[in-house]
Amino acid sequence: MTREEFDAAVAKHGRRVFTLAVYLLGDREEAEDVTQEVLIRLWRRGHEVASEKIGSWLVRVTRNACVDAFRHNDSGIRAMTDSVARWPSDLSTGMPGPEGLANASQLSGRILGALRELSEPHRSVVILREIEGLSYLEIAEALEMPLSSVRVTLHRGRRHLREELRGVRDHVEAC
Amino acid sequence: MSKPVDVTCADVLDRFEAWIDGELEPADAAKLDSHVAGCAACRDEHRFALEIRSQLQAMPVFDPPARVVNAVHDAATPTMGERLNEFLNAVMRRPAPAVAAVAVIAVLVLAVVPLLRTPTTPRYSAEEVERATEETKLALAYVGGIARHAERQARQKVMSEAAVSGTLREISRSIEWTGAAVSPAPSTTKRPKRIDEGSS
Amino acid sequence: MRKTTVMFGVCLIALSGLAAAQAGAGHPGYFPIEEMGVFAEGDLEVDINLEGAMLEVAAGAMDQESPDLAEMVSQLERVRVQVGAPEGVDEAAVTANFDDAVSRLEASDWKRIVSVEEEDEQVYIYAREIEGAIAGLTVLVNDSGEEIVVVNIVGNIDPRVLGRLIATMDEMPDLEQFMDVVE
Fold this sequence. Notes:
The complex is a heterotrimer of chains A (about 180), B (about 200) and C (about 180). Chain A is about 70% helix and about 0% strand. Chain A is mainly α and about 180 residues long. Chain C is about 40% helix and about 30% strand. Chain C has helices at about 1-15, 20, 50-60, 65-75, 90-105, 160-170, 175-180, and strands at about 45-50, 75-85, 110-120, 120-130, 135-145, 145-155. In chain C, strands 1-2-6-5-4-3 form a 6-stranded antiparallel sheet, with helices on both faces. The radius of gyration of chain C is 17 Å and the shape is globular. Chains B and C meet through helix 6, helix 7, helix 8 and helix 9 of B and helix 1, strand 1, helix 3, strand 2 and strand 3 of C.
């Protein structure tokens, strides 16, 4: 991989890598470290990857790196959900629409909390699909899952979110 | 409007997400449409599901901070070997006469070999030194870990006292001593479930 | 790229005779683990290849943190480690090649220090002794055919220092910490 190809890949995919790491890890500093590690790995091993596969390769490597970051903390994949205290504060901004903004903000904050409760691979799939906007095919390639499994996993993930948040919604409406 | 008797709220909830995403067969989607239109609870759940999805899709995305990008660019500086290889590849790709290409390589080799032969220690970058240091530690850690693991697992000593010289006996005693250590041998095969990165 | 690299390497060897100066086949502690044929080409999880001056420099860097380790490393001439899953290589061939390497070590002047021979695990550590010092260590591990570790360390190794280091290096570094380094 030439330097030019590498720079182009970083410019094109850096945001996706970092965003995925932020939402998976819930810790900006760790996400920065993982992102740096992943992009350096791209430099060292990118020549082994077909150029059209770089995007999915990066998603896969990022997810693995986040899983490993939690394994290193001896907490396992489940501990990826145990990080609400470290969510970057700016995640709760940028909510749509002025009406019901207070309620929306409260709900969006709890969405992040509920997201952290999701197990893998539901969490990764929800992040990749709903937040990052990847297609089913892109997710299937990146996570090496059959297309049908991506759909099922996404639907189950959203369902779990809904069930988790139902209590919050009732509280908000009662206020 | 009355609810169709063959679609219950449970049925709707089961296929809710697929329905929202428009992935149901038209006939099934129509059944859910009809049910939800006539069921306040499911309509409410529908609105809620759409709101959650909407808020997820509105979550911000983040660009990696400049310090990360700079660190990556610093680390992406090609090593001398990589630059040499790139140069050689470029030479070989050019439609130059074979003789000229060989001459270039010969000049390079003659220029490089004296450097390799000098008795002085070659200069390495801080990154190369760090890498070599960490790799050396890793290699020795492998030897140490495997030795302790083997000592714990070994059921039968291969060496007999007669076959072993004094120096090898010393190693064996050190290994035996460490066999009493508490720390478990790190497994090289038990990994969390990762996705094979391969080189797709 | 490969052809270029091979050609460049051949030129170096032909013109400089460099190979003789390295810890190559002529050194008693050398064992060609990279020729065992148990890994698919380019498919290694760990591939460490350190020789000569690089080891000297590493020893210098370790000196403050761990003088014992630095002293031992300064006497090394080669550190070669390969770790990986033998995917893409015929299972029978992997087993045969692994066993062949063990047989070669057994039949030669290498002494087996310790071994584990279970159905799902084979571990062998051999040492080559020359005049009271260890000239080479070769470690072979086959874990259920799913992961293989091969190590060859060449140099002038004081067995007491090595034994002490084995006793004190009680934590295998997390491989993923080194991914950035060893790739």
